[in-house]
């Protein structure tokens, strides 16, 4: 029987409990207990835990507090005012169009991603389709190809005048160029394809968690495949599908890369691009930008709350019990070659074609459709220009500094916070857990604007430095670090800590020599994942960087704004190669901790 270390410590510290000691008066006992309570917060454990709580609260609350305060504060500082909302939304037909564009873009992208992801997940889990390895390769797209590069590749493919699909396929066959990537439909197409692998991973987990014997029973009762799919499979998957749809909706709503690269070319605004446009205009109207940001934040928060509310009834759809089951794949029969051809087509359309067109554009002096003359002029000049570009190495160095710093800080912070949430009964630990997950509902551009509100008004001189980017990344990826740390700590029994305490180890020694080594797999996987996503982060960075403090994603954005498309493509290919290395490491380390299901974040 293992003795609880807390009770042992209590008896040893209590003068009343020691043999041979004269009982002390009640006043002395109360003074002794008070001294112990005063001494405990000054211990290393108290300082670390208290510091972690303060940092999490600061990261989660202060930026939003400043954003709300400065948006609702009147221009003269006299009191509450709604003038910023009147300037942003009142009497402006463009605001109504912007909100409709935002909702249409988010809903359309979510629907396309969900349909593709669910269909692919069904084919992969429930059928004997060939080429199943291509599904895993396609699921890497959101990590390997950042949104800014994916949108750029589809500009090369779907531009009305020079896009490869229009000039090589549709124009020779039909005499016209029907694809216009600079439209709401084009934005939906690109965003939906980029999110489809995320929806696929979410739905694969749902299919694998569902007992297929219910579908087999319906089939044995005479129902055809379409009836089984419509009457059994889809109803059982409804909670997972709704949650995935809402996640895709929120991610599309906060997307900046696709609307910024595609929509602004044709005067199509959504919330994120409108915020960026307002902050690039002169004079800058911070109040109106804050009003747009709060509107976007409210819609995103409502989506997350609706998702949480819908998941309350998920127990009614549970089908996996203690009884073992083994799914049997559906034999496609004559349809197998056609389904296999569809899998190959999807892989070519979503992975091979976008990456190949980036490589093709990176070898050209000026982007043009492939002809004999164009192909004869291909060279590595753009790659030489990238390696000779001092700003490229500066951006790479900045990305590494900020990425490594954010990954290290987040994983150390969340390891301590996870211990408080999972190992203690401290009052307010659930609130601390909620605070750690709060940034997940804050769109990146809103976070960047909120941080600019904070540090433009504080005397702390970090605005325009790498430190503010580090703060931004730590805030943005705090929920994901919490996911990894909590998962790793939940797998360990508290008996290990109790044994270390009984052996005389302090809390810090137990944490450093027992918990951290045992959590190292999950912590290292989360560390690499945060490093990877930090490299591609643009939305929260675009409002906070200053000249000389660019990161790789910002440098690519600047190349696009300057019209340097072929140099951008070469830089993008180098970035993709670097991310392939990092993602390979992340997948090796995170196989046990669900990195595949977290690649949306």
Low-confidence stretches: 1-21, 33-39, 317-324, 593-601
- Overall domain count: 1
**End-to-end separation:** 44 Å
- The quaternary structure here is single chain
CATH architecture: Orthogonal Bundle
CATH topology: MetI-like fold
Order of helices and strands: HHHHHHHHHHHHHHHHHHHHHHHHHHHHH
What is the C-level CATH assignment?
Answer: Mainly Alpha
Question: Mean pLDDT across all residues, rounded?
Answer: 79
CATH evolutionary superfamily: MetI-like
Helix amount:
over 70%
* Structure annotation, total helices: 29
| Portion in beta strands | under 5%
Structural class: mainly alpha
- The geometry reads as globular
Overview of this protein structure:
By secondary structure, this protein is mainly α. The protein has a single domain, classed as MetI-like (MetI-like fold), CATH 1.10.3720.10. The protein is built from 29 helices and no strands. The chain has helices at residues 5-13, 26-39, 44-72, 83-89, 93-126, 133-139, 141-144, 147-158, 164-174, 184-208, 213-220, 225-253, 257-263, 271-280, 286-310, 336-362, 372-376, 381-387, 390-423, 429-437, 444-457, 466-476, 478-490, 495-502, 507-518, 520-536, 552-561, 565-589, 595-598. α5 crosses α12 (225-253). The longest helix has 34 residues, at 93-126. The model is unreliable at 1-21, 33-39, 317-324 and 593-601 (pLDDT under 50).
